[in-house]
Amino acid sequence: LSLEHTFLVQVLRFFLDGRPLQGEPWGTLRWEEILSLARHQNLVPIVNHVLARKEFADRVPPEVREAFRAGFFEEAARSLRQERDLREIVGAFQAADLSFILFKGPSMAFEFYPRVELRTYRDLDLLIREKDYDLAKATLARIGYRVHKPEREEIRRSSFNSVTFIKPDGEG
Q: Within 10 Å of residue 136's Cβ, how many Cβ atoms?
């Protein structure tokens, strides 16, 4: 692993169990590479959380701290939009008496992260009963969602038991 990959792994270990960062690679780190890796792995909020700590803040160049901070706020805003969408979907499903299970993204954030905004996610994953699919699809349509790539709906449903819904305005 590169020095930047190793550093990122150490940051994650510190986040998970407080394990101290090994060595003093701070001066030789390629911070743009760390930021790029963190973005690619959706880890910007966690890295920001760790590097903003008092014991690390003076070791990180100000422009890097600001880039991680800005990335954190972008992800937090996205999470707030996702939470808004989730509340809307949950309300609609409850009104339609549809059972569902929320998993991955937000459920992981609420269950396992000390602060929900540290868990990034790009979509909402809901499990429903197969027999409820048509009702769920109609319920989602009532609140502005439609099947993404409808020409693939049946193959995705039969092969993967997974259908993606989007809001045409790009909000969901």
A: 22
What's this model's pTM, rounded to 2 decimal places?
A: 0.77
Q: Are 109 and 121 in contact (CB under 8 A)?
A: yes
Taking the CA atoms of 147, 74, 109 and 37 in sequence, report the sign of the dihedral they define.
positive
Eight-class DSSP state of 130: G
Distance between CA 24 and CA 131 in Å, rounded? 57
Token pair in block for residue 23: 């060595």
d(CA 31, CA 64): 7
Contact 172, 144 (CB under 8 A): yes
* Host H or E run for residue 95: helix 62-95
Cα→Cα distances 133→85, 140, 153, 154, 158, Å: 19, 10, 12, 12, 12
pLDDT above 70 covers what percent of the chain? 97
**Residue/partner pairs of 142-150 with CB below 8 Å, 24 or more apart:** 142/92, 143/88, 143/89, 143/92, 144/168, 144/169, 144/171, 144/172, 145/172
Give the HSE-up count for residue 14: Cα atoms under 13 Å, Cβ half-sphere. 19
- The whole-angstrom distance between residue 94's C-alpha and the CA centroid of its chain comes to 24
